[in-house]
Amino acid sequence: MTARAADRARYDRATAHLDAPLAIVDLDAFDANADDLVRRAGGKPIRVASKSVRCRALLERVLAKDGFAGIMSFTLAESLWLARSGFDDVLLAYPSVDSAGYAELTSDPKLASAVAVMVDDVAQLDLIDRSRDGGREVVRVCLELDTSLKLLGGRVRVGALRSPLHTPAQVAELARAVARRPGFKVVGIMAYEGHIAGVGDSVAGRPFRSRAVRLMQATARRELAERRAAVVRALRAVVPDLEFVNGGGTGSVQTTAAEDAVTEIGAGSGLYVPRLFDNYTSFSGRPAALFAQPVVRRPGVGVVTVLGGGYPASGAPGRDRLPVPYLPEGLRYDPQEGPGEVQTPLLGAPADDLLIGDKVWFRHAKAGELCERFDTLHLVEGDAVTATVPTYRGEGRTFL
Which of 381, 382, 305, 365 is nearest to 337 (CA)? Predict the structure, then answer.
């Protein structure tokens, strides 16, 4: 029996009393992945990206481990909810225009001390001030550095279109603007190098693309390390008591942690290890989050149909954004239909061994987005479900 076949047997036994569709997290794999992230971080704390987890119980579990500290959230409403729930170090990783949220933040000392918000433009400060509604608490501010690699005098750009702050001078100028403004304090800077951390460098069947990605990433790492160090020097000249410099992502933990300027690493997807993280040469993890769909039809030889399963992930549309049939091994989509909203045909010899009601296990393309499809996660240890916990959705929280 292969390791994957053994996992399938465990998951089927653990959930034999449960009807699919359902989602699980294998806690042995989750904990092993957490340990590997800590090892790769080389002693620097990891701030957990909540959008990659979207389950309070699992956020609490990982933050109880040595090597993890703080949360990187994705909306202001989520940040406030987490802070009210007892999480005392929340970095909002994206700018917000939530006026009601800012009114709440600036009126509550506990929330204001627990949450840092993202800013890359003076206009965002103006919006926060207009939203205060009498709130006088100091807003903790994190600046975001654009990490993109610019070549040929800026005519070629590699990386996400995020912050307009690219140079040390631009970052320092905004930091001075914040410092001059009552009611705000710069506490950190974040630089997420998605073109390094979030792009696999070993794509099966595409050796030339893989080599090109590795070359691009090597160039980008060198450029960013030099520029990030210069940015931090310039920022500390304005903000000597800067609390943190956040960088990285699951795919670049060890290289970002090696930079002296970086004080903490942001990561989250590496806990669940969705399918997009299969294509890296620098690390490998254990798939920890899976979902199961039931077999509802047997249309013919070598074919079964499961209920639903069409859960595409965000990003540029493509096959890499689709879930993949994972267990039993050897199943594939019908190219004429793909994964459907209410039914999904699956082809392959293993289909003939599946009966009506059997479970087919899938892996989602991106980590936390799976939790937008399920109210609960069944936590598996060995061959038993030891707990069932709500996702954000299960707690009635849909922040985006």
Answer: 305
- This model's pTM is above 0.70: yes
pLDDT tens over the chain, length 400 residues = 899 999 999 999 999 999 999 999 999 999 999 999 999 999 999 999 999 999 999 999 999 999 999 999 999 999 999 999 999 999 999 999 999 999 999 999 999 999 999 999 999 999 999 999 999 999 999 999 999 988 877 788 888 888 999 999 999 999 999 999 999 999 999 999 878 766 767 677 777 777 777 787 888 889 999 999 999 999 999 999 999 999 999 989 999 999 999 999 999 999 999 999 888 877 889 999 999 999 999 999 999 999 999 999 999 999 999 999 999 999 999 999 999 999 999 999 999 999 999 999 999 999 999 999 999 999 999 999 999 999 999 999 999 8
Query: How many C-beta atoms lie closer than 10 Å to residue 343's C-beta?
Result: 16
Q: For CA atoms 189, 149, 225, 177, give the dihedral sign.
A: negative
Nearest to 354 by CA among 298, 309, 300, 307: 298
Residue type, 375: D
Query: Taking the CB of residue 40, how many other CB atoms lie within 10 A of it?
Result: 22
β-bridge partners, 325: 362
| CA–CA–CA angle 51, 54, 58 (5° rounding) | 120
The DSSP 8-state label assigned to residue 115 in this structure reads: E
Pair 104, 133: CB distance under 8 Å: no
Amino acid in position 302: G
* CA distances to 29, 130, 200, 223, 309 from 196, in Å: 24, 37, 8, 12, 30
Burial class of residue 281 in the structure, from the number of CB atoms within 10 Å of its CB (0-12 exposed, 13-18 middle, 19+ buried): exposed
Map tokens 């654009």 to a residue: 146
CB atoms within 10 A of CB 23: 21
Tell me the one-letter amino acid at 117: V
Q: What is the rounded CA–CA span in Å between residue 116 and residue 313? A: 28
